[in-house]
Design goal:
Elements lengths: L1 H7 L5 E6 L1 E3 L2 H5 L7 E3 H13 L3 E3 L1 H9 L8 E7 L3 H14 L3 E5 L11 H14 L13 H9 L5 H9 L4 H14 L16 H9 L3 E4 L12 H19 L5 E3 L7 H9 L4 E3 L18 E2 L14 H8 L2 H4 L15 H4 L6 H13 L4 E4 L9 H7 L3 E4 L17
Parallel strand pairs: 1-5, 1-10, 2-3, 4-5, 5-6, 6-7, 8-9
Antiparallel strand pairs: 11-12
């Protein structure tokens, strides 16, 4: 399968992998964070070792762009490590491993968060939604942005996991809608420090500069972690240009590379990147990169802990190699989500509301749904491997009698 992908790619595979948070205690962090953002330090190290053993050259993003453009001939397939969002976990737990093993990497920074105690909207919403479930709280949609029911309804009726609902919602609604929902939920839940997640802190500039001195690269990821396909051109220009300028000013390096938030990109965004001297843009499309392909639509495989867990709940070298070789894609068992989008018009981007009739219909449907009950799992599931059972204990399961649920709704979302 590797040989097949190699022939598809024009002679050499260019595998770009994406990580978010590298943590010391995966099982503990699983109880409070978005699961798909997490990988343990141990598993991360094994990924790098596995890639080397599989014959990949652990390369930089610049190497990948040069090979794609024909400026360099690669003797081996390339394996490029990238991180999105600049979580402090990367500095604490990934950076020492990368430095020890001599592996290059690039981290894409949303610069308005660096040197602050702010948390990302996706982490804040995930945390608040868990609080809503724990307290069995019924939100007052009349005081919230009208799309709120699109997010909370599927979660509270068990139709989607919190992670899946968030991913879908963030890709469809601009930042101001997300912050409006956050503000409304915090107010309705009575405020307090417990409504802001402790985890998910980001690096400061001293930490970024330390990594840069050791040769690690940094790219731009907007100012405020903004999905730019949902914003007018003026916002696109500001988020791209000012994030690039901020990193260059603070770190003293030239910024050439960009990561699209949520993996979504448009022709308009590519135009702005080219105009301001960028050399690449990375998506989250899990597809093979091809020699001669577009450097502003680089494909990435997003990795997290469970992509390497075997049937017994422990690390599987075979499964990890299958992920790297894209066995599931070759066999048609996975279906990548394409990131290219038509850019939203300024008129559409200027509206924070959805059609009133659609919102009313969605809320009416939610009101008719069978109420759900949130219960605690107090004992490991019988027959579950110890590592997985540890992750399940204390988790929350949605029980919705007489409702036909999606398959994943019957399981703890931490195992998805």
């Amino acid at each position: 399968m590797a040989a097949y992908r190699r022939s598809q790619s024009g002679g050499r595979r260019i595998l770009i992998v994406s990580y978010h948070r590298v943590v010391s205690d995966f099982t503990g962090e699983l109880q409070r964070s978005i699961p798909g953002l997490l990988i343990s330090q141990e598993t991360f190290r094994r990924h790098l070792e596995q890639a080397h053993a599989a014959g990949f050259e652990l390369a930089s993003i610049g190497d990948a762009v040069d090979v794609m453009a024909g400026r360099r001939t690669a003797k081996k397939d390339l394996f490029v490590v990238t991180f999105d969002d600049g979580y402090r976990d990367v500095y604490r737990y990934a950076y020492p491993v990368l430095k020890e093993m001599g592996v290059p990497a690039i981290t894409y920074l949303p610069t308005a968060f660096i040197n602050t105690d702010k948390r990302f909207n996706h982490d804040r919403l995930f945390h608040l939604l868990r609080r809503v479930q724990e307290r069995r709280f019924r939100p007052d949609y009349d005081t919230m942005p009208s799309p709120s029911v699109e997010l909370l309804g599927p979660i509270l009726t068990g139709q989607k996991t919190t992670s899946a609902a968030l991913d879908d919602f963030i890709g469809e609604h601009p930042t101001r809608v997300l912050t409006g929902i956050i503000d409304s939920l915090e107010q309705q839940l009575g405020g307090g420090e417990d409504l802001v997640p402790e985890q998910g802190d980001v690096m400061n500039w001293d930490e970024v500069r330390q990594m840069a001195r050791d040769g690690f690269e940094f790219g731009a990821h907007t100012l405020g972690h903004t999905v730019l396909t949902l914003e007018p051109t003026a916002v696109v220009e500001k988020e791209i240009v000012e994030s690039k300028q901020t990193i260059e000013r603070e770190v003293g390096v030239q910024v050439k590379d960009f990561a699209y938030c949520n993996g979504w990109y448009s022709d308009e965004m590519i135009r702005v990147l080219k105009q301001h001297g960028f050399r690449s843009g990375v998506t989250t499309e899990d597809l093979p990169n091809r020699v001669g392909g577009d450097p502003f639509a680089l494909k990435r495989k997003v990795m997290w802990e469970n992509f390497s867990l075997g049937l017994m709940g422990d690390y599987s070298s075979s499964l990890t190699v299958c992920q790297f070789d894209d066995c599931f894609g070759v066999l048609g068992m996975s279906h990548p989500v394409l990131g290219h989008r038509q850019h939203m018009s300024p008129q559409a981007a200027g509206s924070a509301n959805v059609v009133v009739q659609e919102a009313a219909a969605a809320e009416a449907a939610f009101a008719r749904a069978t109420p759900v009950e949130v219960v605690d799992v107090t004992a490991p599931v019988s027959g579950t491997p110890p590592r997985v059972a540890a992750a399940v204990t204390g988790a929350q399961v949605v029980v919705a009698p007489n409702v036909a649920l999606a398959p994943e709704a019957a399981q703890p979302e931490e195992l998805q």
